[in-house]
Amino acid sequence: MAKATEKKKDEVILALKAIAEEKGISEEMLFMTLEDAMIAAYKKNYANTGSQNVRVNIDRETGEIKVYSLRQVVEEVFDDNDEISLAEAKEINPRYELLDYVENEVTPANFARVAAQSAKQIVTQRIKEAERSILYNEYHEKEFDIIMGTVQRKEKGNIYIDLGKTETVLPLQEQMPGENYEFNDRILLYIVEVKQNPKGPMISVSRTHPGLVKRLFEKEVPEIYEGIVEIKAISREAGSRTKIAVWSNDPEVEPMGACVGPRGTRVQSIVNELRNEKIDIIKWSKDPKEFIANALSPAKVLEVIIEDNGNSCKVIVEDNQLSLAIGKEGQNVRLAAKLTGWKIDIKSRRQYEAELEAKAAEKAEILEDEVLTEAVEAGDEASAETLENTSEE
């Protein structure tokens, strides 16, 4: 009978170790959980047998379970079940001091069998909680990074994606326009946010976020990953066009060339992943005029004029460059504005010169009016009449 009990204890230990390994949970955490569950079971089933202040210990090697009552050492005893006098405690062991706890084994017969059923539910719940916590931490570490997922199904425009250990949803607004998702398609996703949830981590993903482009460049361009080349800014209209501003911390490394790669292989790999989304790689500059001019690529800029308000500018281009600078439906200038953070007003050379002429004429007219007013006020009627005639002519 003793051998059978010992074998059963060994099986419990082996089972706990197997669960810990399978679930990726700490063995010690499982043992402590089981001990807490055993304490709850003892209090429930042996409420009238003495102290309710108990400690349960499970031997980590043999699985043997022992229950100990805990009585605190006090000056005056009011409850024999939970307290013991200092004098009595010192009779047990002279080292005891006030507020120490005296332990006494009170393991009931067949306690393991009685407690097992009560403990099972608590242990199962703790294991689930631990699994959710581990899963949350795993994906939380990947927040703002990219992850591969497998398309499972479509429902009401949403795409359900298997991430391996959990599932997430790609909402319609985070899907790239014109991109089709079929069952078992493997797609890269950008993890926007990971939240803790009672049922497991809630993972928000996107295919439209500029962060997806940033991470793809970091993956494809070693110089970016190593910090030699920096991505300073990104503006994106997913599925159509992206502008990315880069800068090199090494004068010998050309940032745009590093991103393009030999024969365009690096950027082409990213374009393929984004289903032929157009990518403009431009050189960042701390000089706003130069940066704005670069951002309007592929258009050639003649001049950038910073307005007095400090966040707006006027850009002058050749007449034949105007439509290119603005872009189809204003996309090029819109992305350039997002990239630089400046409000951009584009004018062709002809428009700008006409604008200057109109301003000059307006200024001259105002000046004439001022001179005429001064002449009238001074009583110089002849001069005023001459100015009036000149103005009429």
What would your notes on this structure say?
The chain has about 400 residues and is an alpha+beta fold. Among the domains are: about 130 residues, N Utilization Substance Protein A, Chain:P, domain 4; about 60 residues, OB fold (Dihydrolipoamide Acetyltransferase, E2P), CATH 2.40.50; about 35 residues. It is built from 13 helices and 15 strands. The chain has a 5-stranded antiparallel β-sheet with strand order 7-6-5-8-9, with helices on one face. Strands 1, 2, 3 and 4 form a 4-stranded mixed β-sheet that branches. Strands 10-11-12 form a 3-stranded mixed β-sheet, sandwiched between helices. Strand 5 and strand 6 form a beta hairpin. The model has no long low-confidence stretch (mean pLDDT about 90). This is Transcription termination/antitermination protein NusA. It is found in: Cytoplasm.
Describe what is shown at a glance.
Helix content is 44%, strand content 25%. The protein has 393 residues and is an alpha+beta fold.
Strand and helix layout:
Elements: H1 2-23, H2 27-45, E1 54-58, E2 65-74, E3 83-85, H3 86-92, E4 101-105, H4 111-140, E5 146-155, E6 158-162, E7 167-170, E8 186-195, E9 202-206, H5 210-220, H6 222-225, E10 229-237, E11 241-248, H7 255-260, H8 265-273, E12 278-283, H9 288-295, E13 301-306, E14 312-317, H10 322-326, H11 331-340, E15 343-348, H12 349-378, H13 381-392
Parallel strand pairs: 2-3, 11-12, 14-15
Antiparallel strand pairs: 1-2, 2-4, 5-6, 5-8, 6-7, 8-9, 10-11, 13-14
Helix pairs in contact: 2-4, 5-8, 9-11, 12-13
Protein name: Transcription termination/antitermination protein NusA
Organism: Proteiniclasticum sediminis
Keywords: Cytoplasm, RNA-binding, Transcription, Transcription antitermination, Transcription regulation, Transcription termination
